[in-house]
Design goal:
The chain has 971 residues and is mainly α. The chain is built from 37 helices and 11 strands. It has a 9-stranded parallel β-sheet. Strands 6-7 form a two-stranded antiparallel sheet. Belongs to the PEPCase type 1 family.
C-alpha cells in the first residue's frame, strides 16, 4: 500500500507524479472525477475501479488512522511480496521484526486496511463480470456456455424439439438449498454497506456528468468510511434466528425479483429457439426452479435447532414473502388506473372488483384497482392467519383469507386474462406477470425447509420408545436383520409406541415434538413448506425405516388398515463417508424392493431422492477418491433405479471449497455421469459462497440461470452410445479406479496413519481460533475431542484455506499419477499412460472438471506463506516431517497436472481469475503473516496461563475475515 494510495502496484496504470500527489492533497476527490480514456484493454475498467476504491480506502484510512499507519502498511506489503516472490530469508526476518514491533492498535488497523481492500476488490470484480456479460449481450453474443440460450441452441442442433423441452420442464426440479454453516464470516451490516458500494460502482458505467461523477465519488467515499467505522466482527455468537435473517436478506436482494424474471426470460428463449411454438404458446410452465433451505430445520450436530426454531423459520419466511406480495399489490393498485369508460373489462374481472371491500365512488369505473384492493385485503388476512404482524399498510376492509396460494394465483390470472382480452397485454409484463409467477414459485412458505438429523439420534429415540412400550428392551443391540424385522412389524400395526402417560428423555421428547411441528407447519403453510427428511450418516437400511416409524408415531405416515398409505415427508438417506458411498446402492436396493415402501414411493410420483456428501467423503478419503467414489455411487444408483422403474433425484451436498465439492456449478453438473441429472437436481449453497453468488442481483440471476442451463444440457443432450465410446469410457474408468486407490492410500497414510499429524494440524492451522469465532450457531466439532474423525468437515477445510495450503483440494493426486506412470516400467509404456491421461482430460467431462478445480486450488496455494504457519508447530522434527511430506506432494501434484494439461502456468484457461488472484495476493499475504504473528502471541499467553488479550483475539478474527474474503471460496 503506497503512501496516500493503498492500491496494488499491479493495478496502477502509471506512477503518481509529484504534481498529481500535490493536487490530491489539495482535493482528495479531484483525482477521481475525470472518466478514464477509452481503452482496448477489456480489463481496463476493472483496473480503474480497483484503483479508485483503493485510493478512496486510503483517504479514509489516512483520515482515521494517520500517515504513520500508511508507512507501516506499505513496508509490510513490500516485505511480504519480496518474501513470497524470492523466498528471501532476509525478507522473512525483516517481516518478523516488523510484525513484532506493531502495537496492538496498529496491528488491527493494518489488518482492517488489508481486509477491506480484499472486500472492495471483490466488488470491483463482480461488477466487471456484469459489465463483460452486458458487453456480450450488446454484441449479440447471448448464446454463451452457461446461458439458457446456449443450452437450447445445443439441444436444437441435437434434434431435441421445443415440445420435448417444455414437457421436460413440466416434470423437472432444480433447487439450490441455502444452508447455514460456520464459514460465513461476514456480518450482515458489512454486506449491506458493500451492496451500496456495488451499486455506486455500477453507476459509474453510465454516462455521468462531471457533477454526477463527483457526487458518485463522494458517496463512495462516504460508504467506505461507513465500512471503516462499522464493526467487522460479531462479539456474540450467531443464533439460528440470526442465520435465518441473514438468509432472508438474499431473497429481498435477489430471489424475489430475479427468479420470476428468469422464468419469463426462459419462456421467451424457448419460443425464440423453437418458433413453431411461438404462435400457439403453451400454458406457463410450473415452478421447476424452487428455493430450499436448511436453516432452522437442520438439527445434525446443532443442539440449537428444535421445533421452535423450525416454526420461527417458517414464520419469518412467510412474513418475508407476504411483505413482498403486499407491497407489489399496493404498487399495482397505483399503476392500474384503467377505467371502463375507456376500455372494457371481462365479466370475471368485474365480479372480482364487485367482491372487493372497496366501495368508493371515486373508483367505481376502475375495476382493476378495486380488484387489487380486494386481493390486498385477502393477502393481509392470510398473512395474519399465519402469524404475520406489523403489516405496514392497513387494508380498506375485511376479506376472507386465501385457502391456498393457488386461489391467489387464480385471482391474479383473472386480471391477466382481462387485460389480454381488452387491449391491455402490454400492462401485464411490467409487474403483474412477475407477481403471479412469484406466488406460483414461493407460495405462502417462500422456500422448502428440509429437516435433517443423524441416524444415531433416531436409534436412541426408538430404543427408548421400544423399551418404554415393553416391545424390545435393547433395540440398539439387535442385529440389522432383527432391527428390520422389528421395524417392519411395528409399521404394519396401527397402534403407537408413544404414551402420553410415560416420562421420556429430553432428546426423545424434542425429536417427537419437532416432527409434530412439521405436521402442523405443512397444514398451515402448505405441503411444499416441508417435504424432505434427510438422514445423516446413513449406514444401514434400518436407518431409513426408523424415520418411517418416527413419522408414523407423529401422524406424518398414514396407515389404512394394516397398510402404509401415505408418507408426508420423503425419507432421504445421506451417504457421506467413503464406506457409506460404497454401500449406497445396496442399501437403496433393499429400500426400493420392500413392498411396504414401493407403495409410498408410488405416491411420491415414483420418485426417490438420495443425498451425497462431499465434505465428509473428502475428509475421509481425500480429494481424488472422494470424487471418484461419488461418481461410482451415482452410476450404481442410476442403474439400480432404472431397474426398479423409479426416478432418481440426487441432492449434492456441495460446499464452497473444491475439497467439499465446490467449484463452478455449471461444469460440475455437466460433469455428472450420464443419467444422473435427468431433470432432477438439488444442491447446497453454503457459507460465504451464498454472499458471493447472490448478494448482487445480476450475478445472482446469472448463477440461477447457470443451474437451469446445465440441467437442460445434462438431461436432454443425447449421450454417445456407440461401442467405441463405451469401450473408451470403460478404459478411462479403469484408470481412475487405479488412481483413486493410490491417492486414497497416500491421503490416509498421512492424515490417519502418521503419528503426530493431528497435533500438526491443530498447531499449524488456526482451527482452534476459528472454533472461537462467532460465525455460526453450529459447533465446530461433533464431539469434544481433537480427533479428526470427530471434527466437522467444514472447519477442517476452512482451516487449510486460512493457512494457504488448501490441502483437501489436491493432496494425493501427485502420488497417484506419478506412481501409476512409474509402474509402467519403461519410457514407452509410461508415455502411453500419460497419453491416456491427456485423452481423459480432453474427452471426459468428469476428469476435466476435476483437473480444472484442482488447478484453481493450486493457484491459491502458497507454500511460502504456509511455511510460516508450519513454524507454529513447536516440535521441530514433527514440523519438518509433516510439512516436508506436504510440500513434496504439492510438487508432485503440480508437476503431474502440468504434464497432463500441457501447461505449467496455473489457470492458463482462465486468465481473468489468474489476474484477479495475482492482483490481490499483495494484500492477502500480509494478512496471513499477521495472522501467524497474532496466533503466536495468543498461544503464548494461553501457555503462560494468562488472561487472553482481547485485542489480539480480535486481530486474529479480523485476519480470518480478510483471508476468507480474499480467497472467496474457502469454507
Amino acid at each position: 500500500m503506497a503512501t496516500k494510495n493503498p492500491t496494488p502496484r499491479s493495478a496502477r496504470s502509471t506512477p503518481s507524479t509529484p504534481r498529481a500527489t500535490t493536487a490530491a492533497k489539495r482535493s482528495p476527490a479531484s483525482k477521481t472525477v475525470t472518466k478514464p480514456a477509452r481503452s482496448t484493454d477489456k480489463d481496463a475498467p476493472l483496473k480503474e475501479h480497483i484503483r479508485l476504491l483503493g485510493r478512496l480506502l486510503g483517504e479514509v484510512v489516512r483520515e482515521q488512522e494517520g500517515d504513520e499507519v500508511f508507512e507501516v502498511v506499505e513496508t509490510i506489503r513490500q516485505t511480504a511480496v519480496r518474501f513470497r516472490r524470492e523466498s528471501d530469508a532476509k525478507a522473512g526476518a525483516e517481516l518478523d521484526k516488523l510484525l513484532k514491533k506493531l502495537t496492538r492498535d496498529q496491528t488491527n488497523s493494518v489488518v482492517r486496511a488489508f481486509s477491506y481492500f480484499s472486500h472492495l476488490a471483490n466488488i470491483a470484480e463482480d461488477q466487471h463480470h456484469n459489465r463483460r456479460r452486458r458487453a456480450h449481450l450488446l454484441a449479440g453474443s447471448e448464446a454463451k456456455p452457461g446461458s439458457v440460450a446456449y443450452a437450447l441452441s445445443r439441444l436444437d442442433d441435437a434434434g431435441v424439439s421445443g415440445a420435448q423441452v417444455r414437457s421436460f420442464l413440466k416434470e423437472a426440479l432444480v433447487s439450490p438449498v441455502l444452508t447455514a454453516h460456520p464459514t460465513e464470516v461476514q456480518r450482515k451490516s458489512i454486506l449491506d454497506a458493500e451492496r451500496e458500494i456495488a451499486r455506486l460502482v455500477a453507476e459509474r458505467d453510465l454516462p455521468l456528468t462531471p457533477r454526477e461523477l463527483r457526487h458518485n465519488t463522494e458517496l463512495l467515499r462516504a460508504r467506505i468510511a461507513t465500512l471503516w467505522q462499522t464493526r467487522m466482527l460479531r462479539y456474540t455468537k450467531l443464533t439460528v434466528a440470526d442465520e435465518i435473517e441473514n438468509a432472508l436478506s438474499y431473497y429481498r436482494i435477489t430471489f424475489l425479483r430475479e427468479l420470476p424474471a428468469l422464468y419469463d426470460d426462459i419462456e421467451a428463449e424457448i419460443d425464440s429457439q423453437f418458433p413453431s411454438r411461438a404462435k400457439t404458446r403453451a400454458v406457463e410452465l410450473p415452478p421447476y426452479l424452487q428455493m430450499g433451505s436448511w436453516i432452522g430445520g437442520d438439527r445434525d450436530g446443532n443442539p440449537n435447532v428444535n421445533a421452535a426454531t423450525m416454526q420461527h423459520a417458517l414464520k419469518r419466511q412467510s412474513t418475508t414473502i407476504f411483505d413482498y406480495y403486499l407491497d407489489e399489490v399496493h404498487t399495482l393498485g397505483a399503476e392500474m388506473s384503467i377505467s371502463t369508460l375507456m376500455v372494457a373489462a371481462s365479466p370475471e374481472l368485474l365480479a372480482l372488483a364487485d367482491a372487493s371491500p372497496d366501495h368508493s365512488e371515486h373508483r367505481a369505473d376502475e375495476p382493476y384497482r378495486r380488484a387489487l384492493i380486494g386481493i390486498y385485503a385477502r393477502l393481509a388476512a392470510t398473512a395474519r392467519s399465519l402469524g404475520v404482524v406489523n403489516i405496514l399498510r392497513q387494508e380498506i376492509g375485511a376479506a376472507a383469507p386465501y385457502a391456498s396460494p393457488a386461489e391467489c394465483v387464480a385471482e391474479l390470472e383473472v386480471l391477466v386474462a382481462s387485460l389480454q382480452a381488452n387491449h391491455g397485454a402490454a400492462l401485464v409484463k411490467p409487474r403483474l406477470a412477475g407477481l403471479k409467477r412469484a406466488v406460483e414459485i414461493f407460495g405462502f412458505h417462500l422456500a422448502t425447509l428440509d429437516m435433517r438429523q443423524s441416524s444415531d439420534v433416531h436409534e436412541r429415540v426408538l430404543a427408548e420408545l421400544f423399551a418404554k412400550a415393553q416391545v424390545e428392551a435393547d433395540y440398539a443391540g439387535l442385529t440389522e436383520e432383527r432391527k428390520i424385522a422389528l421395524l417392519l412389524g411395528e409399521l404394519s400395526r396401527p397402534r403407537l409406541l408413544y404414551s402420553p402417560y410415560l416420562q421420556y428423555a429430553d432428546e426423545t421428547n424434542s425429536e417427537l415434538t419437532i416432527l409434530r411441528a412439521a405436521r402442523e407447519i405443512r397444514r398451515r403453510y402448505g405441503e411444499r413448506a416441508i417435504r424432505n427428511y434427510i438422514i445423516s450418516h446413513t449406514e444401514t437400511l434400518s436407518d431409513l425405516l426408523e424415520v418411517l416409524l418416527l413419522q408414523k408415531e407423529t401422524g406424518l405416515l398414514h396407515i389404512e388398515g394394516n397398510q402404509l398409505h401415505e408418507l408426508e415427508l420423503m425419507v432421504i438417506p445421506l451417504f457421506e463417508t467413503i464406506p457409506d458411498l460404497r454401500c449406497a446402492a445396496e442399501i437403496m436396493r433393499g429400500w426400493l424392493t420392500l413392498p411396504q415402501v414401493k407403495g409410498l414411493i408410488a405416491k411420491h410420483g415414483k420418485l426417490q431422492e438420495v443425498m451425497l456428501g462431499y465434505s465428509d467423503s473428502n475428509k475421509d478419503g481425500g480429494f481424488l477418491t472422494s470424487n471418484w467414489e461419488l461418481y461410482k455411487a451415482e452410476n450404481q444408483l442410476v442403474e439400480l433405479f432404472n431397474e426398479a422403474g423409479v426416478k432418481l433425484r440426487l441432492f449434492h451436498g456441495r460446499g464452497g471449497t473444491v475439497g467439499r465439492g465446490g467449484g463452478p456449478s455449471y461444469q460440475a453438473i455437466l460433469a455428472q455421469p450420464p443419467g444422473t441429472v435427468n431433470g432432477q437436481i438439488r444442491l447446497t449453497e453454503q457459507g460465504e459462497i451464498i454472499a458471493s453468488k447472490f448478494s448482487n442481483p445480476e450475478i445472482g440471476r446469472r448463477n440461477l440461470e447457470l443451474l437451469v442451463a446445465a440441467t437442460l444440457e445434462a438431461s436432454l443432450m443425447p449421450a454417445a452410445t456407440d461401442g467405441k465410446e463405451a469401450k473408451k469410457l470403460a478404459e478411462f474408468e479403469r484408470v481412475m479406479e487405479e488412481l483413486s486407490e493410490r491417492a486414497y492410500r497416500a491421503y490416509r497414510n498421512l492424515v490417519y496413519e502418521t503419528p503426530g499429524f493431528t497435533d500438526y494440524f491443530f498447531a499449524a492451522t488456526p482451527i482452534a481460533e476459528i472454533a472461537q469465532l462467532n460465525i455460526g450457531s453450529r459447533p465446530a466439532s461433533r464431539k469434544a475431542t481433537q480427533r479428526i474423525e470427530d471434527l466437522r468437515a467444514i472447519p477442517w477445510g476452512f482451516s487449510w484455506g486460512q493457512c494457504r495450503l488448501l490441502f483437501p483440494g489436491w493432496y494425493g493426486f501427485g502420488s497417484a499419477v506419478s506412481g501409476w506412470l512409474e509402474e509402467a516400467g519403461n519410457a514407452k509404456e509410461s508415455a502411453k499412460r500419460l497419453a491416456t491421461l491427456r485423452a481423459m482430460c480432453k474427452e471426459w467431462p468428469f476428469f476435466a472438471a476435476l483437473l480444472s478445480n484442482m488447478d484453481m486450488v493450486l493457484s491459491k496455494t502458497d507454500l511460502a506463506v504456509a511455511s510460516r504457519y508450519a513454524g507454529l508447530v513447536a516440535d521441530r522434527k514433527l514440523r519438518t516431517t509433516i510439512f516436508g511430506r506436504i510440500t513434496g506432494e504439492h510438487e508432485r501434484t503440480s508437476a503431474m497436472l502440468s504434464a497432463i494439461t500441457g501447461t505449467k502456468e496455473r489457470l492458463s484457461g482462465n486468465p481473468l481469475l489468474a489476474r484477479s488472484i495475482k492482483n490481490r495476493f499483495a494484500y492477502l499475504d500480509p494478512l496471513n503473516h499477521l495472522q501467524v504473528e497474532l496466533i503466536k502471541r495468543h498461544r503464548a499467553t494461553a501457555a503462560a496461563k494468562r488472561t487472553p488479550e482481547e485485542r489480539v483475539q480480535r486481530g486474529i478474527h479480523l485476519t480470518i475475515n480478510g483471508v476468507a474474503a480474499g480467497l472467496r471460496n474457502t469454507g
